[in-house]
Specification:
InterPro entries: AraA_N_sf, Fuc/Ara_isomerase_C, Fuc_isomerase_C, Fucose_isomerase_N/cen_sf, Lara_isomerase
Distance between the termini: 40 Å
Keywords: Arabinose catabolism, Carbohydrate metabolism, Isomerase, Manganese, Metal-binding
Largest sheet: 6 strands, antiparallel, barrel
Organism: Tessaracoccus lubricantis
Structural class: alpha/beta
Radius of gyration: 25 Å
CATH topology of the largest domain: L-fucose Isomerase, Chain A, domain 3
Number of helices: 16
Strand content: 15-25%
CATH class of the largest domain: Alpha Beta
Helix content: 25-40%
GO molecular function: isomerase activity
Protein name: L-arabinose isomerase
Number of strands: 19
């Protein structure tokens, strides 16, 4: 079973082709061929569910100046410069200097190799896609910008180039979400967690996201006056999606009680209403409330609703962890999950380590059906109630930590590993046994040396290099933790 997204993934990708105006009178039909090449790229990009805006072909400085206001007005998440043939950098310098949008050069030549014996100048110009890439990169640096990324390959039957186009469409989706997101922040940092503090203004500066400051009473209002039909439907949804196993070895756990189910369903409905009211795209929270109060009841029983929302593409973090909420959004928009995780005990016998948390989790990346257990107590926190337990899918995994440097700048700490298909403790928490090269001791030392926070986002597949490109687009420092011997 898989939960559908609350909102479809989207981004706006622009395409502008470049050429050299002198060629068109010299070689009849070449301009038409260049437009046809650009149309192929447009179809490839549109196939990935993004909105495409094609600005046509520019071939000298005047046309570049003319198209610039249109590109600015389009509010793009990514601009692809289609290098259909050689073009002077006067077409590009105008754009790269003025635009504050990720730019990728695309050099896809129609032929895998020229027919040398029958070669013509027309054939060469039709396949000169890479010719001006170095020139454009140099001019970008002269304009004070980073050299743009470049996709190199053939226009047809090139799975490597097609995969890079797909990757950049995913990156555009991440960028779109981050710069338009409204992330709720509620409560306060869990006592003594100094690594959790985050300046909301710094979030807006680095990611573009707006941080909405919320009060626990904003959820409580919905909790105290719920629609009984919605609570009943939510309880039925929970039972359809989750197993409710008997306790095994942990005396803290019980089989899900009807009271905990009803409280979880009521809290989940309240959470839905609160999110709709505030128009949020994510939430980081922690609040305890007074013992016995309705505030404590609702704020300590959000885990089940959290997990459903996370699977719908709404990242949620407990313990007030705004930084990891953003990391979870990055992974979710890449469609690879993004569970809230930290390191648990090391398994020296298997050269691995448990990774997980007491919630929330991205249940779309669960191995099999997730479970709910009732807990008599939440370790280290007040309250009791329903808690979600499952294993992450077996196979490759990626971790993304979002930390802060001494200068107050964000830094991505990234690593890849493997999720092992082995049992985990039946404690009502999500865990998976992760293996990392070259060995668990060395890997953990290297991870710690990058000064991450103790939380991170956990997703499926190996995607470290794509996440590093996301960091580059955002202008954020990043490091992939080495796993070499």
């Amino acid at each position: 079973m898989k939960i559908d997204r609350r909102k479809p993934l989207t981004a706006r990708v622009g395409i502008v082709s470049v050429g050299h105006h002198v060629y068109w009178d010299q070689f009849e039909g070449l301009l038409d061929d260049m437009h046809a090449k650009s149309a192929v790229l447009e179809r490839k990009v549109a196939a990935h569910g993004v909105e495409v805006v094609n600005f046509g072909l520019i071939d000298e400085a005047q046309s570049a100046y003319s198209v610039l206001p249109k590109i600015r007005a389009a509010d793009l998440d990514l601009l692809m410069v289609d290098m259909v043939t050689y073009a002077t950098s006067s077409t590009f310098g105008v754009l790269i200097r003025a635009l504050d949008v990720p730019v990728v050069m695309v050099a896809l030549q129609p032929l895998s190799a020229l027919d040398y014996a029958q070669g013509t100048t027309y054939m060469q110009l039709s396949n000169d896609d890479f010719c001006s890439v170095p020139e454009f990169a140099a001019v970008a640096v002269r304009m004070g910008k980073r050299p743009p990324e470049v996709i190199i390959g053939t226009l047809h039957d090139d799975p490597i180039a097609d995969a890079e186009i797909a990757e950049w469409c995913r990156i555009a989706t991440v960028y779109h979400s981050l710069r338009n997101a409204r992330i709720g922040l509620m409560g306060h940092v869990l006592e003594a967690m100094l690594d959790m503090h985050t300046d909301p203004t710094a979030v807006t500066a680095a990611f573009g996201s707006h941080v909405v400051l919320c009060e626990p009473e904003d959820i409580l209002r919905h909790y105290l006056n719920p629609d009984p039909a919605r609570v009943k439907a939510k309880a039925e949804e929970i039972l359809r999606f989750f197993d409710t196993p008997d306790p095994v070895s942990d005396p803290v756990t019980m089989k899900l009680t009807d009271g905990d189910l009803q409280t979880a369903a009521k809290a989940a409905v309240a959470l839905d209403g609160f999110i709709e009211e505030k128009q949020l795209d994510g939430l980081a929270y922690y609040y305890e409330g007074l013992p016995g109060s309705d505030v404590r009841t609702v704020m300590t029983n959000l885990t089940v609703g959290n997990s459903l929302l996370q699977a719908e593409g709404f990242p949620m973090c407990g313990e007030f962890d705004l930084k990891t909420c953003l990391a979870m959004m990055v992974m979710d928009r890449m469609d690879i999950g993004g569970s809230f995780a930290e390191f648990h005990p090391i398994d020296f016998d298997r050269d691995a380590v448990l990774v997980g948390h007491d919630g929330p989790h991205h249940i779309n990346i669960a191995e099999g059906r997730p479970s709910i257990r009732s807990l008599r107590k939440y370790h280290g926190k007040p309250g009791s109630g329903a808690s979600v337990e499952f294993n992450i899918k077996e196979g490759p995994i990626t971790m993304l930590g979002n930390t802060l440097t001494a200068e107050g700048r964000f830094k991505f700490v990234i690593a890849e590993g493997e999720s092992l298909h082995l049992p985990v403790p039946p404690t009502g928490n999500t865990n998976t046994l992760g293996r990392f090269r070259p060995d668990i001791r060395t890997f953990l030392k290297r991870w710690v040396a990058e000064a991450p926070t103790h939380h991170y986002a956990l997703g499926v597949g190996h995607h470290a290099q794509t996440i590093k490109k996301v960091a580059d687009v955002l202008g954020i420092e990043s490091v992939v933790v080495s796993q070499d011997d």
